[in-house]
Amino acid sequence: MHPNVLQLVNLITSEIRSSADRVEKWASFKRKHAHALTQLLQLEGKGVENPGGLLGIDFDDDRKLILLNYTGEAHNNLHDMTEDA
Question: Out of 18, 63, 76, 84, which residue is the most buried by the measure of CB atoms under 10 Å away?
Answer without folding.
Answer: 18
